[in-house]
Amino acid sequence: MNRQMQMRVGEFRTDNEKDAWQQGYISSIEVLMDLHQDLPENLQGALCAGWWCAFEDATKRRR
Q1: What is the DSSP string of 25-49?
Q2: Is residue 58's pLDDT more than 60?
Q3: What distance in Å separates the CA atoms of residue 26 and residue 18, rounded to the nearest whole number?
Q4: Which of 17, 23, 27, 29 is most buried, by CB atoms within 10 Å?
Q5: Quick one: which of 24, 27, 22, 31 has its CA closest to 50?
Q6: pLDDT tens, 5-57?
Q7: Residue 40 to residues 21, 29, 30, 44, 46, Cα–Cα distance (Å)
Q8: What's the distance, Cα to Cα, between the start and end of the chain in Å?
Q9: DSSP secondary-structure letter at 63?
Q10: How far is residue 1's CA from residue 16's CA, in Å, rounded to a whole number?
């Protein structure tokens, strides 16, 4: 897992950065929870793994 994915809210200095982190955290949890409800339990791990791969790919493209 890359360093950017491991950063926690306490590592940001400004209130704006902390607010943005919190919005990203909350929205990602809400999206995954909605998707979880639509899938059988045996597919939920694959859903989360796919989300992480997509996130890693997106962060690599921004560099």
Answers
A1: HHHHHHHHHHHHHHS-HHHHHHHHH
A2: yes
A3: 12
A4: 17
A5: 31
A6: 567 778 888 999 888 888 888 888 888 888 888 888 888 888 888 888 888 88
A7: 30, 18, 17, 7, 11
A8: 16
A9: -
A10: 25
